[in-house]
């Protein structure tokens, strides 16, 4: 049995399971049932998804990539036939996926804001460097060596922070200092091209088309909060379609 004390240590394991759910949900679910661990794993997964710190940050699946893998795995389960996923389990999976998609969307947006701010800081640093060089060339105002060292030190700190590195300050250490935006930008995976919002909406539309009664029953379980989340996810999926087509067009024109 997996104990509550071991939740954190099993996060990578659950990500692997979520990953294979995405590629082959029916076979993976059957294997978990055959091993007699399906219920235990799902209970563990949902508990881990709900765990948050006092600050409101998630305890588990903190990276963008982790959230995306979970979203794809859970969404793949939603697309399974009714004889694979009971109505109660479907409702639980659907709501958990909605909440995780919203968290993923917010984290991606925050990462973009941070990157844009870093780019602005780099541009400002470059402009300051040009201005400093002009001042040195003019030589109209003398600068003491000590003052110049201080200016250079500040500029170096500004550049380091603009490039995404944080200068360590021992006084700033606390339990909530985990970096939720530490995805490895160099890491490439087969799911990089899969948009979780478009995939989710497409899966729900497929359920609606193949089993209207099941879809209607699922929608009736949603309160106002989850209806709002679902509408927001659907709207964002449409926005992502437009953005992706724009990116493809820009890439094609650049060639």
From TrEMBL:
<dbReference type="GO" id="GO:0005635">
    <property type="term" value="C:nuclear envelope"/>
</dbReference>
<dbReference type="GO" id="GO:0005829">
    <property type="term" value="C:cytosol"/>
</dbReference>
<dbReference type="Pfam" id="PF25758">
    <property type="entry name" value="TPR_IPO11"/>
</dbReference>
<feature type="compositionally biased region" description="Acidic residues">
    <location>
        <begin position="117"/>
        <end position="149"/>
    </location>
</feature>
<feature type="region of interest" description="Disordered">
    <location>
        <begin position="112"/>
        <end position="149"/>
    </location>
</feature>
<feature type="region of interest" description="Disordered">
    <location>
        <begin position="164"/>
        <end position="189"/>
    </location>
</feature>
<dbReference type="InterPro" id="IPR011989">
    <property type="entry name" value="ARM-like"/>
</dbReference>
<feature type="compositionally biased region" description="Acidic residues">
    <location>
        <begin position="169"/>
        <end position="189"/>
    </location>
</feature>
<dbReference type="GO" id="GO:0006606">
    <property type="term" value="P:protein import into nucleus"/>
</dbReference>
<feature type="domain" description="Importin-7/11-like TPR repeats">
    <location>
        <begin position="17"/>
        <end position="163"/>
    </location>
</feature>
<dbReference type="InterPro" id="IPR016024">
    <property type="entry name" value="ARM-type_fold"/>
</dbReference>
<dbReference type="InterPro" id="IPR058669">
    <property type="entry name" value="TPR_IPO7/11-like"/>
</dbReference>
<protein>
    <recommendedName>
        <fullName>Importin-7/11-like TPR repeats domain-containing protein</fullName>
    </recommendedName>
</protein>
